[in-house]
């Protein structure tokens, strides 16, 4: 079978591999769509933590059941998406239901080879039924679930004033699910085209293009109160540190981004505001179900999100182009 591998930073290739065989508790999935994520672009550019090369990329996956063991809840041909976080089920985090931050977590396409290939075997518990959805939609569940998880972590409520910093796919996902909770949502970014997408397609309440005077503009726009909740989805250490100043007194700061290195903040300001600081990693089955329910209810503009696409053989030449801001990508899908 064919697989898309990042051999080293800056080099992608199509390689031939033996098709996998299912083991105990596993199902075989014929992959049909792979969403290309910021993580994949970071792998290509050589700045993704927790990764060793070469690596078959791909963790935003949809497909069809090709083979399932006797007694499985799945049958051949079922449309599914995949929860790509392979958790142990026995560590303290897993026992508390926090499988997204399992001590022994392995993520497909990061810690082990991923799903940008024709077939993959995964534990049955990581396969999510996607009945009623198309393959494109099912492939977008995972990145949307990351945004939904961060918003769930934040505790956003109707009338919460939420700022999402960074209008990439994860930030857009956070904005969608903050709006779904009835929050007043502002999105900040340097990219005017993405801000227009958030305003025109997602329907956020306010968009603000980041500039050197952004702190003063936010202060004026909020009568000095700033935000109840700030969600960072920039992937920029500088932006993540700057975001502390956007959190109002008694507010919450959620870091969806992960970067190499340390993040620092001013301790007196942090304590004066009694800021709640939350990390948000991956997603859980609950978040996947939240996204699936929203999709089935027509509350996610999936057709608009899927902005670019191409075949598996084209992917080594397309992904470098898709990774550039001027390409205007919201979500690119590889069709298999």
TrEMBL record:
Entry GO MF terms: oxidoreductase activity
Span of domain Alcohol dehydrogenase-like C-terminal: 169-295
Keyword Oxidoreductase set for record: yes
InterPro entries with a match to the protein in the record: ADH-like_C, ADH-like_N, GroES-like_sf, NAD(P)-bd_dom_sf, Zn_alcohol_dh
Source organism superkingdom: Bacteria
Keyword field: Oxidoreductase
Pfam families documented for this protein: ADH_N, ADH_zinc_N
PANTHER family: L-GALACTONATE-5-DEHYDROGENASE, L-THREONINE 3-DEHYDROGENASE
Protein name as catalogued: Dehydrogenase
Source species of the chain: Microvirga ossetica
